[in-house]
Design goal:
The structure is a single chain. The chain is 48% helix and 16% strand. The strands form 2 sheets. It has a 6-stranded mixed beta sheet with strand order 1-2-3-5-7-10, sandwiched between helices.
Length: 263
């Protein structure tokens, strides 16, 4: 297992092929700042280098997932500085979206602005009943800067995304689930347990196949259907070069249980 250094704003833990990154900035309700983005980049590299990891969970400590970007840092930015800040955050979130293993957002409390955008770039979102989602940027005289104008319409539809972004409305977990922003809603007490269950179920599958499935979905989504089908066919074929495919199919035919090696 790779060694994980300590960070000022992040906590990292691993257990049974599952890595968890907690954002640890509770005094600001885990608001995102430049230093957190740089720490995230380093943390993602560490998670990537640990080949034992099959699933990544991102969450926040205490009462919030991420309440947004740090307004105290943003308020005095000029245009050039604002662009650099948006580019940094967008690059980190794109890296999460394209991360080689599935990423689950475990959303406790506020997921507003940059927090909602962080959840959007994850593969799956599980929220506690007290979770709140929203893109309130227009109420501050700005627009979302970490790709919500691009990811939210793709997830919930253009009309609903425009409504949420134009009005800055905050919605609860139940509505977020209804519109497809959230995969599952749990009680506050069982959020960690339910997130772990989902992560364990994913981690028990053939890891290379799961990674290829993510790649096929992500790359196919951004192209036309014919190109997407070609991507899937190619990755399907690649699966047959793996030990997991050979062992998995043999175990199925013999009605045996299998533990995948990721080879």
């Amino acid at each position: 297992m790779a060694e994980y250094q300590k960070f000022k704003y992040l906590k990292i833990s691993t257990k049974e092929h599952i890595c968890t990154i907690q954002i640890n900035n509770p005094k600001a309700l885990n608001a995102l700042n430049t230093e957190i983005f740089h720490e995230f980049n380093r943390a993602l590299t560490m998670v990537e280098n640990d080949k034992a990891n099959r699933v990544l969970i991102i969450t926040g400590v205490e009462k919030s997932f991420v309440a947004g970007a740090d307004i105290s840092e943003m308020c005095n930015l000029n245009e050039t500085e604002a662009k650099a800040f948006a580019e940094l955050g967008s690059e980190v979130f794109r890296r999460i979206e394209e991360f080689h293993i599935p990423v689950i957002a475990s959303v406790n409390g506020f997921a507003l602005g940059g927090g909602c955008e962080l959840a959007l770039c994850c593969d799956i979102r599980i929220a506690s009943e007290n979770a709140k989602f929203g893109q309130p940027e227009v109420g501050l005289g700005i627009i979302p800067g970490f790709s919500a104008t691009q990811r939210l319409p793709r997830l919930v539809g253009t009309g609903k995304a425009k409504e949420l972004i134009y009005t800055g409305t905050m919605i609860n977990a139940e509505e977020a689930c209804t519109i497809g922003l959230v995969n599952k809603v749990t009680s506050q007490e069982t959020l960690d347990e339910e997130t772990q269950k989902m992560a364990q179920k994913i981690a028990s599958q053939a890891p290379i196949a799961v990674q290829y499935a993510k790649k096929a979905i992500n790359e196919g989504h951004d192209t036309d259907i014919e190109a997407g089908i070609a991507i899937e066919v190619e990755l399907f074929a690649h699966c047959f070069t793996t030990k997991d495919q050979k062992n998995g199919m043999q175990a199925f035919l013999k009605r045996e249980k299998i533990t995948f090696e990721g080879k």
